[in-house]
Design brief:
Shape: elongated
Number of strands: 10
Number of domains: 2
Radius of gyration: 20 Å
CATH class of the largest domain: Alpha Beta
Order of helices and strands: EHEHEHEHHEEHEHHEHEHE
Structural class: alpha/beta
Number of helices: 10
Length: about 290
């Protein structure tokens, strides 16, 4: 069987080149092939006006080839010590549609998220938001930092744990990432959304809640330590908003891993409020695991 590739979207922006560098490292760590994907407009597709001169499409094609060539150079330079199996795909569908389709057979899809301006911070970019919401595989969202190379970010892998079935795949993948990167895993469980027994709980009630939530976190992590004996795990149980606490821990992390939906989400909700909010606010790579 052909190994599942790491698929990364390429649009020529700084954030997409950072995504290429991160994806190249991920491919090298996992011994997986890397697929670079870019798209171009073609006559007759949705959103392309009738009567557009052919020269415009010729320029689009040339620009697309240049984007892929630069991305391939970036990937090779990012992992100069490894021989990467790199494939390039020049597609004619919509960027989000192509990446979502390829996510069906991918190990992971990686996208850049340019949040340099107010509009970018508000919308996060239609492609990265759509892929994170609808992809079939895990999705890594990479924010292009102007003065920091993404692969130079150090620190632990942080995973958000809410005790639901939705966080189980995220926990497993977080252990994998920590093992591959030979770093500590910080498992964070925030319980501010748990119903308290009274408006002003007694110390006994508060202690009981802390003990219960600590046991819940331990149960969620159980079994992985045997599978990943070299991964040092630090458990954090706090009374805080999940988004705020995970964002604080992500400030010193090289990777934040979360599930796509939490325990309070509707079954039809494809991307939970916590993962969506983190997409807008963290600066380290964010891995959303469905």
């Amino acid at each position: 069987m052909t190994a599942q590739p790491i698929v990364v979207g390429v649009d020529g922006s700084q954030s997409s080149l950072q995504a290429v560098s991160w994806a190249a490292r991920e491919a090298a760590l996992r011994g997986a092939p890397l697929t670079l994907v870019t798209t171009m407009f073609v006559p007759g597709t949705y959103g392309v006006p009738i009567g557009v001169p052919a020269s415009l499409f010729e320029e689009e094609e040339l620009d697309g080839k240049k984007r892929l060539a630069r991305a391939e150079e970036t990937a090779t330079a990012a992992e100069a010590g490894h021989t990467l199996d790199i494939d390039v795909a020049f597609c004619t569908g919509t960027p989000a549609g192509e990446l979502i389709e390829r996510s069906k057979s991918a190990r992971m899809v990686v996208v850049g998220a340019n949040r340099a301006g107010i509009i970018e911070r508000a919308l996060l970019g239609s492609v990265s938001a759509a892929v994170a919401t609808h992809a079939h595989s895990p999705v890594a969202v990479i924010c292009g930092l102007p003065h920091t190379e993404v692969n130079s970010i150090e620190g632990p892998v942080v995973v958000g744990v809410d005790g639901s079935a939705h966080s189980e795949p995220a926990i497993s993948m977080a252990f994998e990432e920590a093992a591959l990167r030979q770093t500590e895993l910080v498992a964070v469980h925030a319980w501010s959304d748990v119903d308290l027994y009274a408006p002003f709980p007694s110390e006994n009630n508060r202690t009981a809640i802390v003990n219960r939530e600590t046991a819940l976190l331990s149960e969620s992590l159980a079994g992985r330590a045997e599978e990943f004996p070299d991964v040092k795990v630090r458990s954090v149980v706090v009374m805080d908003q999940p988004v705020r606490n995970l964002r604080d821990h992500a400030g010193d992390a090289q990777l934040l891993v979360v599930g796509s939906r939490g325990r309070g989400g509707f079954t039809s909700l494809l991307l939970g409020s916590t993962s969506r909010a983190l997409m807008h606010s963290v600066t380290c790579p964010l891995l959303i695991v469905r």
